[in-house]
Design goal:
With about 350 residues, the protein is α/β, with parallel strands linked by helices. It has twelve helices and eight strands. α6 links the parallel β5 (about 165-170) and β6 (about 195). The radius of gyration is 19 Å and the shape is globular.
Length: about 350
């Protein structure tokens, strides 16, 4: 029987967050084909620059390969993956089942998301599920891990050791409500936060000020989302079509001024990203960066070098049969999280 090898760096992401040093994560594109070599190629482009790698779940309501498969491949490559899990396509039974399946495959980090509505994708006639939302999904993940039971009350033996996190949207109005929404997610069990892409630094600074006033940056590490802009078309699309994203007109004009030469406009897009990272570094409460290259994984290394980013924990150089590293110390026990059984959308 072929056995799936254990992830040799399982828990590396949590250890990086505990280290007190700035943490770096990134996202790779979900595959649109059935060749695992595509996932391995993307992974090799980013692995030396980050502490963990995210794989999205049908971003924008468009179908791609299920991220749990790509995360399993990342684990085989010695990368600690972060699995995106959305409520859009699954009811509470399927969500619990997939969390347990992820744990069986050596996948521990779960980014709990409500999910982009499929009306924005290429199959808008699809019926959404939304049995629960991202807050309740966080409660479920915490319940499975800390109580060792399904939400029905049936025991799990042994229970999964999940490390759930959440997304934050500083740029979606009403702006003053967004830090309160984040507080709900932290109370529900979020152990880390990755924000939407920051292009409007001033708005993000205001958001982090409110987050600091609530004391949330002391309770959970917050990674600021950043991304390179590859073209004027990409900049205008994000500005005009992507909910919860703010791209200042000044950045669009900079990309226009870069002209049509591919090398020049890509260099300008990376330069903008590096400048934003430098500005975010000055904002209190930011624990690191989450790079979203949007199917441009080769840009991660360039951004990291120019912005002097490096993983909090050095990239492992372990052979496939290397022993599993010692896990980080278990966090202090948290009080049980009540899991509501009524849908909350």
């Amino acid at each position: 029987m072929t056995m799936i090898p254990a992830n040799p760096v399982r828990g590396r992401f949590e250890r990086a967050l505990r280290s007190g040093r700035p943490v770096v994560t990134c996202e790779i594109g979900s595959p649109d084909g059935s060749d695992p070599a595509d996932v391995r190629k993307r992974a090799k482009l980013v692995r030396d620059y980050v502490d963990a790698v995210n794989v999205p779940d049908n971003t924008g309501g468009v179908v791609h390969a299920a991220p749990i498969a790509a995360c399993a491949i990342l684990a085989q490559e010695g990368i600690d993956p972060i699995l995106h899990m959305t409520c859009r396509d699954r009811n509470r039974m399927a969500l619990q089942s997939d969390m347990l399946a992820a744990s069986l495959l050596g996948i521990r980090n779960i980014l709990c998301l409500t999910g982009d509505h499929m009306i924005h994708g290429d199959q808008p006639e699809t019926k959404p599920v939304y049995d629960v939302d991202s807050v309740i999904l966080l409660e479920i993940a915490s319940h499975l891990t800390r109580q060792g039971k399904y939400i029905s009350g049936r025991e799990i033996d042994p229970p999964p050791d999940l490390f759930p996190g959440c997304a934050a949207e500083p740029f979606a109005p009403p702006y003053e409500w967004r830090p309160l929404r984040l507080r709900k997610k932290v109370e529900a069990g979020a152990r880390f936060v990755q924000t939407q892409i920051v292009f409007n630094v001033e708005r993000f600074r205001e958001y982090m000020g409110r987050v600091h006033d609530l004391g949330l940056d002391k309770q959970v590490p917050i990674l600021a989302g950043v991304a390179p802009i590859r073209s004027v078309k990409a900049a205008t699309f994000m500005r005009d079509e992507v909910p919860g994203m703010e791209v200042p007109d000044a950045l669009v004009r900079r990309m226009q001024a870069a002209g049509d030469d591919k090398k020049k406009r890509e260099a300008e897009g990376i330069a903008i990203c590096v400048e934003i990272i430098e500005e975010i570094r000055k904002i209190p409460g930011v624990a690191g960066f989450h790079i979203m290259p949007i199917n441009w994984e080769s840009a991660v290394g360039k951004i990291s070098k120019e912005a002097h980013l490096q993983p909090a924990i050095g990239a492992p150089k372990l052979p496939p049969d290397a022993p599993k590293p010692t896990a980080a110390a278990a966090p202090a026990a948290m009080p049980p999280v009540p899991v509501p059984l009524a849908p909350k959308v």
